[in-house]
Amino acid sequence: MYEFAYHRPGSLADAAGAVKKAKEGKLIAGGMTLLPTLKQRLASPSDLVDLAGVKELKGIKADGKTVTIGAMTRHVDVATSKDVAAKIPALAALAGGIGDAQVRNRGTIGGSIANNDPAADYPAGCLGLGATIKTNQREIKADDFFAGLFETALKDGEIVTSVSFPVPEKAAYVKFANPASRYATVGVFVARTASGVRVAVTGAGANGVFRVAEMEKALSARFSASALDGIKIAAGGLNSDIHASAEYRAHLIGVMAKRAVAACG
Questions:
Q1: pTM here?
Q2: What is the CATH classification number for the domain harbouring 174?
Q3: Domain check: are 119 and 137 in the same one?
């Protein structure tokens, strides 16, 4: 690692202040991506601001229409939450399938979406459910938040505080996981809401998570796996790497989408 100043603020205001004062400050949540990056000397922040001590960023609240999860809430807490399981069981299942036990006990929802890894699970949940990402400055719709490969709408120093998920009528998340990392080679989140169906795909897009309008239209007309028959996903713009070709990922999107619809019951 390169040398940096370490800060552990106890409040959101102190965290925001520490980042603002820093020459080149970085926020750290669970550290699942940033710590390995620092160890490999691929990043050299002047200051590291640890959000672990900010209690106001932790916790889960649920009402009749919304589940709100604090940015520093760990994956394991979402996976085991009775409120999440009762309101949006697909989201609890998604969190329970992230990485391994060590990752789930350290990683956080805020850190995951702020990093916006193209194979991460939470971006699909956010986009599929039409979530609202709240920061210390504003509210951002999921459709506007994910801006590309490891890119988001967050401004310098802006801190994710919570994510609010509308409770859907039905939802499911199914992924074809890399056996080593448990990242999604392809993951598809399907949600049926009062305003229609949303289909979000992670792991496949060269620019990160995306929605599939043709599938959404077909499923809004008839919510059945067979409604997706004949829909072909173009390989152009999809990832191609040592794990799967773009053509294979295009095929997997169709397979995973059908399984997700079937899982909705």
A1: 0.95
A2: 3.30.465.10
A3: yes
Please state, in angstroms and rounded to a whole number, the distance separating the CA atoms of residues 170 and 191.
6
**Residue 162 structure tokens:** 């919570």
Q: Same domain, yes or no, for 79 and 116? A: yes
Is residue 70 domain-shared with residue 183, that is, in the same domain? yes
* Total structural domains within the chain: 2
Q: Which domain holds residue 29?
A: 5-50
Per residue, what are the HEC states of the chain?
A: CCCCEEECCCCHHHHHHHHHHCCCEEEECCCCCHHHHHHCCCCCCCEEEECCCCHHHCCEEECCCEEEEECCCEHHHHHCCHHHHHHCHHHHHHHHCCCCHHHHCCCEHHHHHHHCCCCCCHHHHHHHHCCEEEECCCEEEHHHHEEECCEECCCCCCCEEEEEEECCCEEEEEEEECCCCCCEEEEEEEEEECCEEEEEEECCECCCCEECHHHHHHHHHCCCHHHHCCCCCCCCCECCCCCCCHHHHHHHHHHHHHHHHHHCC
Question: How far apart are the C-alpha atoms of 160 and 51, rounded to whole Å?
Answer: 11
Model confidence pLDDT, tens digit, residues 96-124: 999 999 999 999 999 999 999 999 999 99
| pLDDT tens digits, one per residue of 11-23 | 999 999 999 999 9
